[in-house]
Write a structure and sequence with these properties.
Strand 1 and strand 2 form a beta hairpin. Helix 1 packs parallel to helix 2. The protein has 12 helices and 5 strands. Helix content is 58%, strand content 6%. The protein is of the alpha/beta class and 353 residues long. Strands 1, 2, 3, 4 and 5 form a 5-stranded mixed beta sheet that branches.
């Protein structure tokens, strides 16, 4: 019993004459608890974003797993206290790897299963691991193989051409269409897109981020962006009239969009029953509005609300006149505009009567 417990926790017990089965058991419980808690928190906070950003989380899972291996190898060199922290961190990273890898693998397998061979693809994901015993050989092989592992997985992830339009791909495709009247196909986008991208940033083609946007906001969040809240009561002042103007402006749409030019932040509120295509149109609209404010220079960020509303109205008219052509060409290029991939958190819906 004692031998089995100490073997199962090589970081605590091996080489320590005072080690006991109780210590090893408590460490095992701590590691397992840390991993379970990390799994719950990670799935709760980032569960919605795992499918739209499956390429990023597929590579992130490999980084988590390789980092856990490094921590395990480093743990014997540390005193018992830091060693326990290190092993608990390793367990947490493996738990994050499990959530990220499992969810992203499901999305990627569904993407590649063109002939209903999902089971075959999942079965091909097994890994065989062998071990070496010399410390120098262990570290040499570890660093070399982990470097190769991450490099090959990065290349593999970059080679995947997803057909859904998440935030980053929507930025690339929509800005190219509006700027050059050309639709990029999934292969072209996969070459240009970044694996790790800041959440919600707006880019015009391959430019640096010039603004950000949030989608799926509640009505209160939208009101807060339209006017300051009272310090004591929290009520939103001077926002009711602006909200009424926005509702009239977007009465034919399934969304409300407001771009706060001074903060360089776009706000998108989705109406109940809105389709994925409407969400894409809302993102395209806030991207175009933000680009126009950015192109106008720093003076435009201090423009009056009325002037900004006029930019919203003109941009909406121009986008609406081109939207049918845009979605038709998107479908022809191979994009799935009916898949909602823009929300990375659980969003809200509003019902206007």
């Amino acid at each position: 019993m004692k031998s089995d417990l100490l073997k199962g926790n090589a970081g605590v017990g091996v080489g320590d004459a005072s080690a006991s089965p109780t210590t090893a058991l408590l460490l095992s419980i701590l590691q397992e608890s840390t991993g379970r808690i990390a799994t719950i928190i990670f799935a709760d906070r980032l569960g919605t974003s795992l499918e739209p950003e499956c390429k990023m989380y597929r590579l992130a899972a490999d980084v988590f797993n390789d980092a856990a291996m490094l921590l395990d190898c480093l743990s014997p060199a540390l005193p018992q206290g830091p060693r326990v922290v290190l092993l608990s961190s390793s367990s947490m990273l493996r738990a994050l790897c499990g959530v990220a890898a499992g969810s992203s693998k499901a999305s990627l397998s569904a993407h590649f299963a063109k002939w209903g061979n999902l089971g075959e693809l999942n079965a091909a994901g097994s890994v065989v691991i062998s071990y070496v015993s010399s410390p120098m050989a262990t570290w040499t092989c570890l660093i070399l193989l982990l470097s190769i592992h991450l490099a090959m997985n990065r290349a593999a992830v970059r080679a995947v051409s997803m057909h859904s339009l998440n935030r980053q791909r929507a930025n690339l495709v929509i800005s190219t269409y509006l700027d050059q009247d050309r639709i990029m196909n999934p292969k072209e986008v996969s070459i240009q897109e970044r694996i790790f991208e800041w959440n919600g940033v707006l880019r015009w083609r391959s430019s640096s981020p010039f603004a950000a946007a949030r989608i799926g906001l509640s009505l209160r969040d939208l009101l807060a962006s339209l006017g300051p809240a009272h310090e004591r009561t929290g009520s939103i002042r001077d926002a009711e009239a602006r909200l009424t103007t926005l509702i009239r402006l977007y009465r034919e749409e399934d969304f409300l969009v407001w771009y706060d030019a001074p903060q360089r932040l776009g706000h998108i509120t989705i109406k109940q029953g809105a389709a994925a295509e409407s969400q894409l149109k809302a993102w395209a609209l806030v991207l175009w509005i933000a680009h126009r404010h950015h192109a106008a220079g720093p003076d435009a960020t201090s423009a009056a609300i009325e002037s900004s509303l006029e930019v919203h109205r003109i941009t909406l008219q121009e986008l609406s006149s081109r939207w049918l052509d845009c979605t038709s060409r998107l479908r022809s290029a191979g994009w799935d505009v009916d898949m909602a991939s823009l929300e990375t958190t659980s969003g809200s819906r509003i019902c206007l009567k």
